[in-house]
Amino acid sequence: MDWTLFLTYLGACGAAAATGAMIQPGAWYDGLNKPSWTPPRWVFPVAWTSLYFLISLAGMRIGHAPGSTQATALWSLQIALNTLWTPIYFGLHRIRAAMVVMVCLWLSVFLATISFFGVDFLAGVLFLPYLLWVSIAGALNFSMMRLNPGQA
Amino acid sequence: MDWTLFLTYLGACGAAAATGAMIQPGAWYDGLNKPSWTPPRWVFPVAWTSLYFLISLAGMRIGHAPGSTQATALWSLQIALNTLWTPIYFGLHRIRAAMVVMVCLWLSVFLATISFFGVDFLAGVLFLPYLLWVSIAGALNFSMMRLNPGQA
């Protein structure tokens, strides 16, 4: 366990988490039509907190794996896109623009997962729950877009 | 020149740039008291666009430098904090919370620059304009906080 490296990656996840903590859904979100399978509100912070630990662990592992140059760059890409999504969705209330960010985020997590499996098997496994969760988040974003055609 | 790696890092910078492009200063910013040395508005996108290219180039170079495990993690940390600052400042209008983010960003860029010099001299040089600019941005954020005591 390389604590300095883990905490550096956890710090990057902390920046992404700060958007979710500081930019709240609020009345705008309450007023939107939601699909029946929308998870209850408390699920989101629990899921993200758990995921950010797994994401940081994966970062630490690939950092020490040989041949991980492209994999670490993809780690950077996903965390920047992850930090961007909340301000666009909950901050600007732009569901469609957020969907574009979500597609980019999903692709970056997908490519990162494949890349991780190539250099460190456990790092790839650590990213699978994240890939699953952004798939659900993407489906949710898409449903919100379809169920609220009047929104930006 | 490793184009795939460069474009991956440039993509991460693109996510950070998107906050600046989509979250505009607006009437709130116009109404704030500003220090006399505030750069004109057009300087910011020009400076950031140039910097994002240098930041991406530095990322590509350290990615290929031996012993850059911690340096690449610091690259991830700075881009996440960079993406976070604009939504807090121009999105939420929280100048004090943005100042906390700015201090973290400055520290991450400072540590990254030192770390880069240790593994690839040119990468360190490429981060110097960025370190200078976040120093100016930090001083500006601090002045705005002092000159607008009624703001959050």
The string of secondary-structure elements of chain A, in order, is: HHHHHH
Poorly predicted runs of 5 or more residues of chain A: none
Instruction: Please tell me how large the radius of gyration of chain A is.
Output: 16 Å
> Termini of chain A, distance in Å?
45 Å
**Oligomerization category of the chains in this entry:** homodimer
Strand content of chain A: under 5%
* SSE-based structural type of chain A: mainly alpha
Question: What is the total tally of β strands of chain A?
Answer: 0
Main beta sheet strand tally, sense and closure of chain A: none
What is the element layout, followed by pairings?
The structure is a homodimer of 152-residue chains.
Chain A (H helix, E strand, L loop, with lengths): L2 H20 L3 H5 L12 H22 L4 H23 L3 H25 L1 H27 L5
Helix pairs in contact in A: 1-3, 1-4, 3-6, 4-5, 5-6
Give me a quick take on this structure.
The structure is a homodimer of 152-residue chains. Chain A is mainly alpha-helical.
Describe the structure.
The structure is a homodimer of 152-residue chains. By secondary structure, chain A is mostly helical. Helices cover 80% and strands 0% of the residues of chain A. Chain A is built from six helices and no strands. Chain A has helices at 3-22, 26-30, 43-64, 69-91, 95-119, 121-147. In chain A, helix 1 (3-22) runs antiparallel to helix 3 (43-64), helix 1 runs parallel beside helix 4 (69-91) and helix 4 (69-91) packs antiparallel against helix 5 (95-119). Chain A is elongated, with a radius of gyration of 16 Å.
